[in-house]
């Protein structure tokens, strides 16, 4: 659907940057390994859960897979030159675990790790800061066969893998984040089953969430020991959760969803404890017997920064009749113990993912993390939108996406003005890619990808973003 807001034209910043970001603000863009790399069976790479999932009939739209994706594995130097042309100061990418440690155990696969060595060197040669994410959902399939994230052993395996990556790349990579959006790995992968590995069990989802955080803590300890100078963090996807009305029942529904969406991860990582109300809500799902003495101390190992992925707001209401929601990521099985809560649509503009556009929610989210949890530097590690794009006369104009970025960058600036220590922003995504269960039907990129020819075409939003970076600011409205 179209955003009715009128976006500023490309080049409008020539009027002068009315909103200037702090010196050294880190401007970047983000991708994920399985979504762009392709080369699924090359260089010693073995299957991940997303290879298995996408090759299972009925799991992805039209049976799409990441086998080829954007062919970044072969086109990496050109893609880095494209980043440099856009003026990116940093590039957030993920390492494919099954590419560098096939099977999730044992020695490094040198050919696989060499790809990331070349990538890091290429970025640095163009003055682009590498920002490395250790895990963006591609668990090696043998680890899933052994129990996956619901199994405690997977956390230890992840720490071993983190050590291997730090040994290979830590001399040139300053920024490491352990996990991208552990909520999705746990509750979409093991709760609703709409993401890999496609399992659907509430207790497994809760256990997976805990073991993801345990793996995070163990990995931070391993990284800190190997590279004490590195900046270490985690990326969580957060949502402001608003009750549909002022009723106590709707307020309680918002509390429940906020517990699962936000506090399930923020509290253990940044406070070293699960919220009491959340564990009470989940009592009918699990007794938390999987939590052992000392786990929460490991999970809350001190960090250097926190990454926030922001896309939209949740508006919720108390149960009445069916709790079934329209969108798959809001299905009841995503919310163990609270699947009867209703998600309410408000009739505001939405993206092609049917996600409501709510830029003020970014301010609210960043202020909350800073006010309630931490003084650590914060980074918006993902923010972006899918819209339907078309190539016309060799160009791709995407005014809706441009307007989305403009509004959310203004929100980011407002958060900084309110005292939030926001140090950087990564647009999602650098280029169109494999959008998980949606396959290639949803386009988030600032750069258009023709999947048949692999031609890249910077969209108007990319040219606009390049101008924002160059000016380190935004024009007056």
From TrEMBL:
Entry's EC annotation: 3.2.1.21
GO terms assigned for molecular function: beta-glucosidase activity
Keywords attached to this entry: Carbohydrate metabolism, Cellulose degradation, Glycosidase, Hydrolase, Polysaccharide degradation
Hydrolase recorded as keyword: yes
Catalytic activity: Hydrolysis of terminal, non-reducing beta-D-glucosyl residues with release of beta-D-glucose
GO terms of biological process kind: cellulose catabolic process
GO cellular component, one term: cytosol
Binding site for substrate: 35, 136, 180, 311, 428, 435-436
InterPro entries for the chain: GH (IPR017853), GH_1_N_CS (IPR033132), Glyco_hydro_1 (IPR001360), Glyco_hydro_1_beta-glucosidase (IPR017736)
Active site: 181, 382
Domain of life of the organism encoding this protein: Bacteria
NCBIfam families reported in the protein's UniProt record: BGL
Family: Belongs to the glycosyl hydrolase 1 family.
Name of this chain's protein: Beta-glucosidase
Organism, scientific name: Micromonospora chersina
């Amino acid at each position: 659907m179209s955003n009715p807001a009128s976006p500023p034209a490309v080049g409008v910043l020539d009027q002068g940057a009315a909103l200037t970001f702090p010196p050294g603000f880190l401007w970047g863009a983000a991708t994920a390994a399985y979504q762009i790399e392709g080369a699924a069976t090359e260089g010693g790479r073995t299957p991940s859960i997303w290879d298995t999932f996408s090759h299972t009939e009925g799991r992805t739209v039209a049976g799409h897979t990441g086998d080829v994706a954007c062919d970044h594995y072969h086109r990496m130097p050109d893609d880095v030159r494209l980043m440099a042309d856009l003026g990116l100061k940093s590039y957030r990418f993920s390492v494919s675990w099954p590419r560098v440690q096939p099977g999730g155990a044992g020695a490094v696969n040198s050919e696989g790790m060499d790809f990331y060595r070349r990538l890091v060197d290429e970025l640095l040669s163009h003055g682009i800061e590498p920002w490395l994410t250790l895990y963006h959902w591609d668990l090696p399939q043998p680890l899933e066969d052994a129990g996956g994230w619901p199994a405690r052993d997977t956390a230890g395996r992840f720490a071993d893998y983190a050590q291997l990556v730090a040994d290979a790349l830590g001399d040139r990579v300053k920024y490491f984040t352990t996990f991208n959006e552990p909520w999705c790995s746990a509750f979409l992968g093991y709760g609703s089953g709409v993401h890999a590995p496609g399992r659907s069990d509430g207790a497994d989802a809760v256990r997976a969430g805990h073991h993801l955080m345990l793996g995070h803590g163990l990995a931070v300890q391993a990284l800190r020991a190997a590279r004490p100078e590195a900046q270490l963090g985690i990326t969580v996807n957060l949502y402001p959760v608003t009750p549909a009305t002022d009723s106590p029942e709707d307020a309680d529904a918002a509390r429940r969803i906020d517990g699962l969406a936000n506090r399930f991860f923020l509290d253990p990582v940044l406070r070293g404890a699960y919220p009491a109300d959340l564990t009470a809500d989940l009592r009918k799902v699990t007794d938390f017997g999987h939590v052992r003495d000392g786990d929460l101390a490991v999970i809350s190992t001190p960090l250097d920064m926190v990454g926030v992925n922001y896309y939209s707001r949740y508006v919720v209401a108390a149960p009445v009749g069916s709790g079934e929601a329209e969108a798959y990521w809001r299905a009841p099985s995503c919310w163990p113990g609270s699947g009867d809560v209703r998600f309410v649509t408000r009739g505001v503009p939405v993206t092609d993912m049917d996600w409501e556009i709510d830029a003020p929610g970014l301010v609210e989210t960043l202020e909350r993390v800073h006010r309630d949890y931490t003084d650590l530097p914060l980074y918006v590690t993902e923010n972006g939108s899918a819209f339907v794009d078309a190539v016309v006369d060799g160009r791709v104009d995407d005014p809706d996406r441009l307007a989305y970025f403009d509004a959310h960058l203004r929100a980011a600036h407002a958060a900084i003005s309110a005292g939030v220590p926001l140090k950087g922003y990564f647009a999602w995504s650098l280029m169109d890619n494999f959008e998980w269960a949606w396959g290639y039907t949803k386009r988030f990129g600032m750069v258009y990808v023709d999947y048949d020819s692999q031609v890249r075409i910077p969209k108007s939003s990319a040219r606009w973003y390049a101008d924002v970076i160059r000016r380190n600011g935004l024009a007056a409205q």
